[in-house]
Amino acid sequence: MHKMIRQMAQLTVQTPLLAAAPATSAAKLLAMPPVITQNVDCCGVHTATSGGLCTKWNKHNYGPRKWLEYNKTVHPPQAVGEEPRKAYVCHMRSNIKYSPDKMWYIAAFVRGMSVDEALKQLNFVLKKGATDVKETILEAQQMAVERHNVEYKSNLWIAESFVGKGRVFKGLRRHARGRFGRVEYKHCHYFLRLEEGEPPQHYYLPEPQTPQQQLEHWLEQMRSRKIINSL
């Protein structure tokens, strides 16, 4: 009921002026339907929880553009005997209605996995952003086969997976005794790069050491100690 009253309050009915019109056109003006225009809020406060990225609020924001330009890069011919260059594809999904802080955990989780393994693991991630990440990976996999001449769609691994901050809409939340609180509707951009081949054994460098290597490194540090101001 309150939502209906708020919408009706934003509508204003503009009736044409009849005083300045001649008598012959007065009947025509009376027959015309009233012109209904909706007031546009100029305070910059967005109070709706859905439909925030419509034309009214997102006229000049097209999201990141540079990431997809890497797909148009033309590499020079390779020399004879040189190792073949691995094919890659960059893909993204912009303005996801999800917090970038929460999406970071999912993006870092699939980083360095093969495509099949990442899709398998995302089926068990009970987070809202896992659905968007999975759909983005499937779209990039299809692009790699259809546009970038990748022979086997399962021969891909996730080389890069990270998140960027998107639009943030600020709104008000009413509380008791006439107070109000501030609420932010956050959006994020998800970026992905698939590369052809097998994933590396250790994605993050330096490679993890075995217990024996850690012991030798510790002994070397202990034996190289020096007593300051000694003989």
UniProtKB/TrEMBL annotation:
Keywords: Mitochondrion, Ribonucleoprotein, Ribosomal protein, Transit peptide. It is found in: Mitochondrion. InterPro entries: Ribosomal_uL22, Ribosomal_uL22_bac/org-type, Ribosomal_uL22_sf. Signal peptide: none annotated. Pfam families: Ribosomal_L22 (PF00237). It comes from the Eukaryota. The keyword RNA-binding does not apply. GO terms for biological process: translation. Its main location: mitochondrion. GO terms for cellular component: mitochondrial large ribosomal subunit. One of its GO terms (molecular function) is structural constituent of ribosome. Belongs to the universal ribosomal protein uL22 family. PANTHER family: CHLOROPLAST 50S RIBOSOMAL PROTEIN L22-RELATED, LARGE RIBOSOMAL SUBUNIT PROTEIN UL22M. Component of the mitochondrial ribosome large subunit (39S) which comprises a 16S rRNA and about 50 distinct proteins. This is Large ribosomal subunit protein uL22m. It comes from Drosophila hydei (Fruit fly). The gene is LOC111593052.
